[in-house]
Amino acid sequence: MSALRDEARAPNTAPERLTELAHLEGDRGDIDSDAGWCREYVAANINTPLATLQELAADMNDCMARRNAAKNPMLDKATLWLMIEDRDDLTADAARERLGLAPKPRLNAIARAVHIPVVDPKTGRIIR
Questions:
Q1: Which parts of the chain have pLDDT scores under 70?
Q2: Which end of the chain lies in a sparser environment, N or C, as judged by fewer CB atoms within 10 Å?
Q3: Closest CA to 39 of 15, 11, 9
Q4: DSSP, res 27
Q5: Are 41 and 24 in contact (CB under 8 A)?
Q6: What is the DSSP letter of 2?
Q7: Measured between alpha carbons, how far is 86 from 80 in angstroms, rounded to an integer?
Q8: What is the per-residue pLDDT across 41-78, written as a single tens digit (0 to 9) for each?
């Protein structure tokens, strides 16, 4: 782990420094980029300023930062309400859990009967 990532995770890192770490150049697309990891860790850090948490919660290009922001107890309820229909189901569920709501309804969550045809072994035709 890099020193920047350690700093982003540390609960005693100054709020101003956490905001700086959230704005490092680069992103998760750079594979092992400190910037992507720092954003994720800053979103989970309870010392992160509310404005920075709100910014990370609204970043539609970083689902891990959004998810960690939703789980962060310092994020305000107004922002959580904006996240309950997030396109990432785990992020939406994290926001919903913090608000005491049921998990996000999922399409195709209901089991449906599937018709399995019965084939006549002699003719190869479907008989049922």
A1: 1, 27-32, 108-115
A2: C
A3: 9
A4: -
A5: no
A6: -
A7: 10
A8: 999 999 999 999 999 999 999 999 999 999 999 999 99
Residues 52/19, Cβ–Cβ less than 8 Å? yes
Tell me the C-alpha distance between 96 and 126, whole Å.
48
| Per-residue buried b or exposed e for 78-99, using 16+ beta carbons within 10 Å of the residue's own CB | ebbeebbebebebbbbbbbebe
Integer Cα distance of 56 and 48 in angstroms: 10
Q: Can you read off the two tokens belonging to residue 126?
A: 């479907």
Distance CA(110)–CA(70), nearest Å, equals 27
Is the C-alpha dihedral spanning 83, 86, 88, 93 positive or negative?
positive
- What is the CB-side half-sphere exposure of residue 106 using CA atoms within 13 A? 10
Q: How far is CA 38 from the centre of its chain?
A: 15
